[in-house]
Fold each of these.
Amino acid sequence: MLGLGLTKYIPLFAYIVCIVCFFLTIFYKTEIGLYLVTLLIPLQNLMDRLQVFPFGKDIMDIYMLVFLFIIALNRKDYSLRDKFVDKAIILLIFTTYSALWVGSFKLGLPYPISLNNEQFVMWKNFVMLPLLYFISINIINKRHQIFLLVWIMVTALVLMDINFYQNTKWFSYEHFVETNRAAGSTFSYLGPNEIAAFYAQITMFLIGVYLCDKARFRRLFFFGVISFNFYCLLYLFSRGGYLSALVGLMFLGATKKRLILVLLLLLFLSWKVVLPNAVVERIEMTITEEGLDHSSYSRIEMWSKAMESVAINPLTGIGFGNTRYLGIKSEKGVRRSVHNGYLKVLVEQGIIGLSIFLIVFYAALRKGWELYQNAEDPQMKGLGLGFVAMIIANLVGNLTGDKWSYFNAMGYFWILFGLVVKANEIVTVEKGSDISVAET
């Protein structure tokens, strides 16, 4: 740590902070726990190092239970905020759990009623994501709390960027090397495509905030973080990540800043000159003289085999988390995923499950755009615009891989979803107050 030899003490310090914040969350202010969880979500490498301490591997679960318990105790103060959004998310939770039973009946798997059941544990890890929406919207009540959470996310990004740079700064990028792709990831068990998808999403969010903000210092700081994020995204060599960022930038250029479209056009005309050679090689690998490269072609083969399962189980699928039982093979052996978020949901939960997923994302897009259109405060507008850009990058990213299931990759989406709905409430109340004052 900064050359002071303190790195070995960081896990102990973080563990002590988790304990202190636990008691502060219970006896002082609930939002303190949410601030800590938000900081830790993308820092899985740090969370892994806490597992040597008592209950270290269960820290996230413990905090989630505490949040839900406090919300239940204060049920008179908390309620469903937006009926359409909240009912869609509740339906998502119910449908995914129902899909566990579908898998039990269709594949003869154990009933999903205990933590000893692997499928149930997978569902529990997934359902923590939509629960983050209800937690953030019920715990965060004030404007300054919303933007404090945003700044905590930015702090986590800075730590991620520094970690990536420290682990990759000695690499040569004259030519593309597959083994260099994820050396700087803080996501631990996830690969470069997942962390690249995260970077594409969160960077689009920050650009939206940057474009709307008026404060010079904040804009300068955001510009620095955005630039560092693009550095990491480039050298993760994820073509899906590049595509997500490109479409997100096109949206921001079309809706907010036309200069972005001009810059993208210039990039299109000169990308072989301005981009690092290793990145150029990675992009050019997609299409060879023989057609699609082996990686892309194998994905199309996997999608084709997955569609055979969809044809047999079109409405309900084969059950939550059961793609791995399809026996889809590639050059790397039997695959546990079909490398397409939409197709995975369709295979596992059928048309019903995919429809509910898309309804939730439609609701998120609508609330983000509503905030951008209705808010007068530049920071609130930026929150809405950035959130919409983030969703667009997310939807594009899931075309080339399942990013919806991972807590590290999607945690910020669900927290921001809650913050955007809360921000809409605040804007509506403020406008109502302004009208009342004017009438008086």
Amino acid sequence: MASILHFIWPIPERGLARRLYRVQADTLIVWGEHDKVVPPVYARDFAAAIERASVVSVPGAGHAPQFAKTEAVLDKVLGFLGR
């Protein structure tokens, strides 16, 4: 158990933070407001590292908002794509 926790908690850094600046596309980060697996602070950190990123929080959703609140996520994604 101790070995697996070394890899999964805290979230392992595999160099993502060093590479996010490379993302040049408009980026929408969709995060569940009540995510207990990966705290919403990560969404803000990712957005801060991506020049043209925005974050939307899905109220009432946890770690998989696309399953828990499908319509809300779809509305946010379609709104982002249609702008």
Amino acid sequence: MRKSRLTRKTKETDIKIDLNLNGTGKYSIDSSIPFLDHMLALMCKDGLIDMKLNARGDIDIDFHHTVEDIGIVLGKAFKQALGDMKGISRYGQASIPMDETIAMVSLDICARPYLVYKVDFPRRSKLKDFDPDLIEDFLQAFTGNAGITLHISVPYGRNTHHIIEAVFKALGRALRQAVAIDPGVKGIPSTKGKL
């Protein structure tokens, strides 16, 4: 069914996730970090991924632990939901414009985690109390635990919110392509016979 359910509890965070890769883009997300909730909702909607996420963390100290641990849990849930990966398309790419910016995402579900992140934010980046640098930490945790090679490039942009929104929409679209079952693929999509 390509579903997973995971819980991760540490002294810093308590996270529960239900994930369905055969979804319709339904989501219920509450991380106590509204900006991250918004970005994950966009990823689900564009990726046709159903997700229920509830996370609590030591956000009174900083958002870092919660953001990174959500990346870890999402990556593990994604890998678990993929199962044996037979028949998946494996590769995905998307270019998504958001007003003055564009985000380009290419990925490979290959069990070789690697993140290339070419995203610069305007000098006076401001997103209420959210640090835009945490997006890279989130993506590093996600790719490392999902086993994905992920390349993200944003060549230009003025508005930090638009830049990050384009990234998450493009990520959703690329994941949607990569996890899709391709009727022409028999077994594991690799000459090695294993991903």
